[in-house]
From TrEMBL:
Keyword field contains Transmembrane: yes
Protein name: Protein translocase subunit SecE
Entry's transmembrane regions: 50-70
UniProt subcellular location: Cell membrane; Membrane
Source organism, top-level taxon: Bacteria
Membrane recorded as keyword: yes
Topology relative to the membrane: Single-pass membrane protein
Family affiliation: Belongs to the SecE/SEC61-gamma family.
Main location: membrane
Coiled coil region boundaries: none
Alphabetical UniProt keywords: Cell membrane, Membrane, Protein transport, Translocation, Transmembrane, Transmembrane helix, Transport
The protein's assembly and partners: Component of the Sec protein translocase complex. Heterotrimer consisting of SecY, SecE and SecG subunits. The heterotrimers can form oligomers, although 1 heterotrimer is thought to be able to translocate proteins. Interacts with the ribosome. Interacts with SecDF, and other proteins may be involved. Interacts with SecA.
Pfam annotation, one family: SecE
Amino acid sequence: MAKAAVVEENTALQKVKEPGKKLGDFLGDVRSEMRKVSTPSTAETRTTTAVVIVTVFAFAAYFWIVDFGINHSLNALITKLTQH
C-alpha cells in the first residue's frame, strides 16, 4: 500500500509540473518563430500604404457607380409602374 501512495504523489507532481513545461515549450517556440520575422523598410511600408489607399478609393468609386446605377434603375422602374 505504501507503493501506491508514492505512485500517486509522483503522478500528482507530474500533473503540477506539466502545465509549466507546456508553457515553457510554447514560449520557446514563440521565441524561435519571432527570430524569423522581418520588418519591412520605410519605403516598403509607404508603398504598401499607398497601394491600399488607392485600392480603397477605387473600390469606393466602383461601388458608388453600381449603387447609383441600381438606384436610378429602380426609381425609373417604380415610377413607370406606378403611373396610370
